[in-house]
Amino acid sequence: MPKEGVQTISEDQIERIFYMIRSSDEIDSKTGKKLEEIIVELKNEYARSMNKLIFDKYMNESVSIHQKLTLPNVN
User: Fold this and answer.
1) What's 65's DSSP letter?
2) Residue-level pLDDT at 7
3) How far apart (Å, rounded) are the C-alpha atoms in residues 35 and 52?
4) DSSP character at residue 6
5) Helices of type H across the chain
6) CA angle 25-31-33, nearest 5°?
7) What is the Rg, in whole angstroms, of the alpha carbon atoms belonging to the chain?
8) Residue 12, pLDDT score
9) Is 42 in contact with 9 (CB distance < 8 Å)?
10) What is the rounded CA–CA span in Å between residue 36 and residue 46?
11) Of 7, 9, 21, 62, which has fewest CB within 10 angstroms of its CB?
12) Where exactly are the structural domains of the chain?
């Protein structure tokens, strides 16, 4: 699913996540992933989840979008 045009996680939310990670006793310098890599993964997962919610909303409408789709003629 494309992630363009889908709501992204705000910088404020990212800052709050950074704060919670930094203040956690479980996280130390030996953590496998760098914080930047975790944020990239978080942004991707957030966009994927928002995309799925939008997709599910349209698929569950009474006149669903998939009923309007047609395949092009192949010659």
Assistant:
1) G
2) 75
3) 26
4) S
5) 11-22, 35-59
6) 130
7) 19
8) 92
9) yes
10) 15
11) 62
12) 11-61
- In the numeric block, the tokens 């992933």 are attached to 33
Q: State how far the alpha carbon of 70 is from the alpha carbons of 38, 64, 65, 67, 75, in Å.
A: 40, 13, 11, 8, 16
Rounded CA gap, 59 and 67, in Å? Answer: 9
- Residue 73 DSSP SS3: coil
What pLDDT score does 27 carry? Answer: 67
Structure pTM?
0.59
Instruction: State the maximum Cα–Cα separation within the chain, in Å, rounded to a whole number.
Output: 64
In which residue are the tokens 């990239």 written?
A: 40
Mean predicted confidence (pLDDT) in 47-62: 80
Tokens representing residue 4 in the block = 């363009």
Residues 46, 53: Cα–Cα separation, whole Å: 11
